[in-house]
Write a structure and sequence with these properties.
Elements (H helix, E strand, L loop, with lengths): L4 E4 L14 E4 L2 H10 L6 H5 L3 H7 L36 E8 L6 H4 L10 H6 L9 H5 L4 E4 L12 H8 L4 E4 L4 H10 L3 E3 L3 H6 L5 E5 L4 E4 L5 E3 L5 H8 L3 H8 L3 H6 L3
Parallel strand pairs: 1-2, 3-4, 4-5, 5-6
Antiparallel strand pairs: 3-7, 7-8, 8-9
Length: 270
Amino acid sequence: MCRSPWLSSQNRNFPNRMGEGSLAWLASGATVAASAVSMTITDPRPYLAKIDRARFDALLNRSSRPAPEVRTSEPTLDVAPAHVAATGGSPDAPWSVRGGIQKFGDNIDTDAIIPGEFCHLTKLDELGEKCFHFVKPGFARRARDGRTIVVAGSGWGSGSSREQAVWALQGARIKLVIAKSYAFIHKRNLVNEALPFLIVKDEAFYAAAGEDSELDVNINTGEIRIVGSGKVFRAEPLTAIVKSLLRERGLGPAVQGHGGKVVERLAAGV
């Protein structure tokens, strides 16, 4: 295995953080920038000594001089031809998911979903095997048939922003997550990685949906039917962009498929 060394100013570090086989050392932003010149670890102080302090203060708005004008431009992307989306149909075409519930309470954090000691794993199936390793032993084993729907309370995915929490759920073959609310960054990770999720705030649903209950869910319309009782509930509607990203199998494939027009296409549900 190739072990690639990295010097980074990121705020987290563990084996494989920068890719499988990588080794990362943490340093200040100045040290990283200075080291990038020669690709060896370099003391940034000689570079810092050459800085025009008056200009530096101005850049940080530490003087009365106006801040420099910032101009932005969009790069031209060379992308592959448009690909086939996950459902292959219109934004509101039926997209049914059926499975049994594994149920959780409130404030399930990402360290519960995938403990930090396993975040060095890079294969989805390995992460999936460690999903809820400590807080719900047997979760991964029960989910192996690919029919598990997670139902949880408020604050699902709080804590760390680690992407591995979503990858672990995918590795465990989770079909769908239903919760009262989500931590913002974790919800964005769900969207970006195209793991379907719904928001249901109706307490009657949580009272009726017990462990191992069978659900029949239409992700596009938000209709949820408890198979045993026939009771029907409604999730909050997904936005057009979220629906499109789920159909496109995530943000990466969407950018590859639509290039610079990705936001426009996703918002239009194309």
